Amino acid sequence: MSDMRIIIFLLTHNTADVLPYFLRWYSTFADEISAFDDASTDGTRELLSGCPKVLLRDWPHPTSGIDEPLFMAHWQEWYRKARPTFDWAFIVDSDELIYHPDMRGLLTEHRSRGTTVLQPEGFNMTGNGLPTDDGRQLWEISPLGVRAPVYSKPVVFNPAVNMDWNLGRHALSNAHELRVATDPKLRLLHYRYMGEAYTRAKNAKNYARCGLVSGDKGAAWSCAESYDGPDKEHSPQWAEFAKTKAFNVMTT
């Protein structure tokens, strides 16, 4: 089924550090990367513009910052626009790499089975910040991580079906209406909690951008400076502690 078409949906703001890895991986199997950029100033737009697979658009709400209900409304509108043209859609963040050793083969197989949603196994990857880019895929350079069930996100799907996620797209509220499947080699590799310093900087950035319109920082509670300690999952100290528990997720 060589006519199968795959689209990747992405929303970015100043993610030039991880974006080369994102584009390198998804360009290996996607037909289109539909990217919405939120007024980036760090080279993100130039990286997106330089990728032949990318269709670059401006985020239509450039002063909103991090607003999960707004993000959800946007994706609920846009994934439906893929219905006439694409067989599979991915909605991912720039630090989320959904991996399978034969992605197009996997999607071809599940299309023939009538699967409508594929749910990967989630991992939080670890390290001392993002590694130096030497041209390889990111997991080849940085393969260590810990299991993260909350990142087993159902974000690989046939856009012809109706998807109803919770905020953050971590779970479906209408899974009973869909044909959801898993595969032991399908993984979501989340390169966000890469050691204490990296996590602290990312948390500060996200906390500052949350609630720019409403002033409500509630959605960024885990990014607050006061949220710290090795027992507080996703905090800077937790990200450092996670390195002691990490294993090579690519050989598991």
Give me the secondary-structure topology.
Elements: E1 6-12, H1 19-26, E2 32-37, H2 44-49, E3 54-58, H3 68-78, E4 88-91, E5 96-99, H4 103-113, E6 117-118, E7 121-125, H5 138-141, E8 144-147, E9 156-157, E10 180-181, E11 187-190, H6 196-209, H7 236-242, E12 247-248
Parallel strand pairs: 1-2, 1-4, 2-3, 6-10, 7-11
Antiparallel strand pairs: 4-9, 5-11, 6-9, 7-8, 8-12
Helix pairs in contact: 6-7
Give a verbal description of the structure.
By secondary structure, this protein is α/β, with parallel strands linked by helices. The protein has 2 domains: 6-133 and 148-190, Spore Coat Polysaccharide Biosynthesis Protein SpsA, Chain A (Alpha-Beta Complex); 196-248, no CATH class. The chain is built from 7 helices and 12 strands. The protein has helices spanning 19-26, 44-49, 68-78, 103-113, 138-141, 196-209, 236-242; strands at 6-12, 32-37, 54-58, 88-91, 96-99, 117-118, 121-125, 144-147, 156-157, 180-181, 187-190, 247-248. The strands form 2 sheets. A 7-stranded mixed beta sheet has the order 3-2-1-4-9-6-10. Helix 2 links the parallel strand 2 (32-37) and strand 3 (54-58). Helix 6 runs antiparallel to helix 7 (236-242). The longest helix has 14 residues, at 196-209. It is globular. The two termini are 30 Å apart. The mean pLDDT is 96.
